[in-house]
Write a structure and sequence with these properties.
The chain has helices at 24-45, 56-60, 69-75, 80-92, 114-138, 140-158, and strands at 96-101, 104-112. By secondary structure, it is mainly alpha-helical. The chain has one domain: Arc Repressor Mutant, subunit A, CATH 1.10.10. The chain has a two-stranded antiparallel ribbon with strand order 1-2. Helix 1 (24-45) crosses helix 5, helix 3 packs across helix 4 (80-92) and helix 5 (114-138) crosses helix 6. It is elongated, with a radius of gyration of 20 Å. The two termini are 38 Å apart.
Protein backbone atom coordinates (compact mmCIF):
# COMPACT_ATOMS: atom_id res chain seq x y z
CA UNK A 1 0.00 0.00 0.00
CA UNK A 2 1.32 3.46 -0.88
CA UNK A 3 2.03 5.67 2.14
CA UNK A 4 -0.83 8.11 2.78
CA UNK A 5 -3.28 6.31 0.53
CA UNK A 6 -6.70 5.64 2.09
CA UNK A 7 -7.70 2.11 3.03
CA UNK A 8 -9.33 0.48 0.01
CA UNK A 9 -7.58 2.96 -2.29
CA UNK A 10 -6.11 2.39 -5.73
CA UNK A 11 -3.42 -0.13 -4.83
CA UNK A 12 -3.20 -2.83 -7.46
CA UNK A 13 -2.14 -5.55 -5.05
CA UNK A 14 -1.93 -5.62 -1.26
CA UNK A 15 1.47 -6.43 0.19
CA UNK A 16 1.90 -10.13 0.90
CA UNK A 17 -1.30 -11.03 -0.97
CA UNK A 18 -1.35 -12.98 -4.22
CA UNK A 19 -2.40 -11.09 -7.31
CA UNK A 20 -6.17 -11.06 -7.86
CA UNK A 21 -6.57 -12.82 -11.21
CA UNK A 22 -10.37 -12.95 -11.35
CA UNK A 23 -11.84 -12.35 -14.79
CA UNK A 24 -14.39 -9.65 -15.65
CA UNK A 25 -17.35 -11.98 -15.13
CA UNK A 26 -16.42 -12.53 -11.49
CA UNK A 27 -15.52 -8.87 -10.99
CA UNK A 28 -19.06 -7.94 -12.06
CA UNK A 29 -20.86 -10.90 -10.48
CA UNK A 30 -19.44 -10.66 -6.95
CA UNK A 31 -20.60 -7.06 -6.29
CA UNK A 32 -23.94 -7.85 -7.97
CA UNK A 33 -24.48 -10.80 -5.64
CA UNK A 34 -23.53 -8.69 -2.62
CA UNK A 35 -26.06 -6.06 -3.72
CA UNK A 36 -28.67 -8.76 -4.23
CA UNK A 37 -28.15 -10.09 -0.70
CA UNK A 38 -28.53 -6.58 0.73
CA UNK A 39 -31.70 -5.93 -1.27
CA UNK A 40 -33.22 -9.24 -0.17
CA UNK A 41 -32.38 -8.50 3.46
CA UNK A 42 -33.91 -5.03 3.15
CA UNK A 43 -37.05 -6.43 1.57
CA UNK A 44 -37.39 -9.06 4.29
CA UNK A 45 -36.94 -6.43 7.01
CA UNK A 46 -39.69 -4.34 5.38
CA UNK A 47 -42.13 -7.26 5.28
CA UNK A 48 -41.57 -8.35 1.67
CA UNK A 49 -39.69 -11.58 2.38
CA UNK A 50 -41.55 -13.59 -0.26
CA UNK A 51 -39.98 -11.55 -3.11
CA UNK A 52 -37.28 -13.64 -4.77
CA UNK A 53 -34.43 -12.70 -7.12
CA UNK A 54 -36.33 -14.11 -10.13
CA UNK A 55 -39.11 -11.59 -9.44
CA UNK A 56 -36.68 -8.69 -9.89
CA UNK A 57 -36.86 -9.20 -13.65
CA UNK A 58 -40.51 -8.14 -13.57
CA UNK A 59 -39.85 -5.07 -11.41
CA UNK A 60 -36.83 -4.00 -13.46
CA UNK A 61 -38.76 -3.89 -16.74
CA UNK A 62 -42.07 -2.53 -15.44
CA UNK A 63 -42.87 1.02 -16.59
CA UNK A 64 -45.11 3.09 -14.27
CA UNK A 65 -48.09 2.79 -16.63
CA UNK A 66 -47.77 -0.99 -16.88
CA UNK A 67 -46.93 -3.20 -19.82
CA UNK A 68 -48.36 -6.11 -21.77
CA UNK A 69 -47.00 -9.51 -20.81
CA UNK A 70 -45.47 -10.13 -24.26
CA UNK A 71 -43.64 -6.79 -24.19
CA UNK A 72 -42.46 -7.48 -20.64
CA UNK A 73 -41.11 -10.87 -21.70
CA UNK A 74 -39.38 -9.34 -24.73
CA UNK A 75 -37.79 -6.60 -22.60
CA UNK A 76 -36.47 -9.22 -20.17
CA UNK A 77 -35.27 -11.55 -22.95
CA UNK A 78 -37.57 -14.31 -21.66
CA UNK A 79 -40.26 -16.48 -23.13
CA UNK A 80 -43.84 -15.38 -22.63
CA UNK A 81 -44.46 -18.57 -20.68
CA UNK A 82 -41.59 -17.95 -18.24
CA UNK A 83 -42.63 -14.34 -17.71
CA UNK A 84 -46.23 -15.46 -17.28
CA UNK A 85 -45.14 -17.76 -14.45
CA UNK A 86 -43.36 -14.88 -12.66
CA UNK A 87 -46.31 -12.53 -13.17
CA UNK A 88 -48.75 -15.19 -11.92
CA UNK A 89 -46.64 -15.62 -8.79
CA UNK A 90 -46.37 -11.87 -8.15
CA UNK A 91 -50.08 -11.45 -8.80
CA UNK A 92 -50.91 -14.16 -6.23
CA UNK A 93 -48.66 -12.36 -3.74
CA UNK A 94 -50.41 -9.04 -4.41
CA UNK A 95 -47.52 -7.19 -6.09
CA UNK A 96 -48.93 -6.89 -9.62
CA UNK A 97 -52.34 -6.92 -11.23
CA UNK A 98 -53.65 -7.48 -14.73
CA UNK A 99 -56.02 -4.80 -15.99
CA UNK A 100 -57.63 -4.19 -19.39
CA UNK A 101 -55.44 -2.28 -21.83
CA UNK A 102 -57.01 1.14 -22.45
CA UNK A 103 -56.00 0.92 -26.13
CA UNK A 104 -57.33 -2.59 -26.70
CA UNK A 105 -59.87 -3.96 -24.23
CA UNK A 106 -59.14 -7.52 -25.39
CA UNK A 107 -55.56 -7.24 -24.10
CA UNK A 108 -54.33 -7.03 -20.52
CA UNK A 109 -51.67 -4.79 -19.03
CA UNK A 110 -49.58 -5.89 -16.08
CA UNK A 111 -48.91 -3.13 -13.56
CA UNK A 112 -47.68 -2.77 -10.00
CA UNK A 113 -50.16 -2.63 -7.16
CA UNK A 114 -49.56 -0.31 -4.22
CA UNK A 115 -47.78 -3.20 -2.54
CA UNK A 116 -45.61 -3.64 -5.64
CA UNK A 117 -44.82 0.08 -5.64
CA UNK A 118 -43.80 -0.24 -1.98
CA UNK A 119 -41.37 -3.01 -2.97
CA UNK A 120 -39.89 -0.76 -5.63
CA UNK A 121 -39.51 2.12 -3.14
CA UNK A 122 -37.90 -0.20 -0.59
CA UNK A 123 -35.42 -1.53 -3.15
CA UNK A 124 -34.47 2.01 -4.17
CA UNK A 125 -33.92 3.00 -0.52
CA UNK A 126 -31.75 -0.08 0.12
CA UNK A 127 -29.70 0.61 -3.01
CA UNK A 128 -29.22 4.29 -2.11
CA UNK A 129 -27.92 3.22 1.31
CA UNK A 130 -25.68 0.57 -0.23
CA UNK A 131 -24.25 3.09 -2.70
CA UNK A 132 -23.52 5.54 0.13
CA UNK A 133 -21.80 2.77 2.10
CA UNK A 134 -19.74 1.56 -0.85
CA UNK A 135 -18.78 5.14 -1.70
CA UNK A 136 -17.62 5.79 1.86
CA UNK A 137 -15.67 2.53 2.01
CA UNK A 138 -14.02 2.84 -1.41
CA UNK A 139 -13.54 6.57 -1.20
CA UNK A 140 -15.84 8.98 -2.99
CA UNK A 141 -13.52 9.63 -5.94
CA UNK A 142 -12.87 5.93 -6.57
CA UNK A 143 -16.60 5.21 -6.34
CA UNK A 144 -17.38 8.00 -8.82
CA UNK A 145 -14.73 6.61 -11.16
CA UNK A 146 -16.16 3.10 -10.81
CA UNK A 147 -19.68 4.22 -11.69
CA UNK A 148 -18.41 6.42 -14.53
CA UNK A 149 -16.49 3.51 -16.05
CA UNK A 150 -19.44 1.13 -15.68
CA UNK A 151 -21.73 3.67 -17.39
CA UNK A 152 -19.17 4.04 -20.20
CA UNK A 153 -19.03 0.25 -20.58
CA UNK A 154 -22.84 0.06 -20.73
CA UNK A 155 -22.98 2.84 -23.34
CA UNK A 156 -20.34 1.07 -25.42
CA UNK A 157 -22.24 -2.23 -25.23
CA UNK A 158 -25.48 -0.47 -26.27
CA UNK A 159 -23.86 0.81 -29.51
Amino acid sequence: MVQGEPKGGREEQREGQPEDRRMIGALLRIPREAALRQVLAGLAAAGFGEVRPAHFTVFQHMPPEGIRLTALADAALMTKQSMGYLVDDLEALGYVERVPDAGDRRAKVVRLTRRGQAVEETVRAVIRQMEADWSARLGHEDYKQLTRLLRALIAMLDE
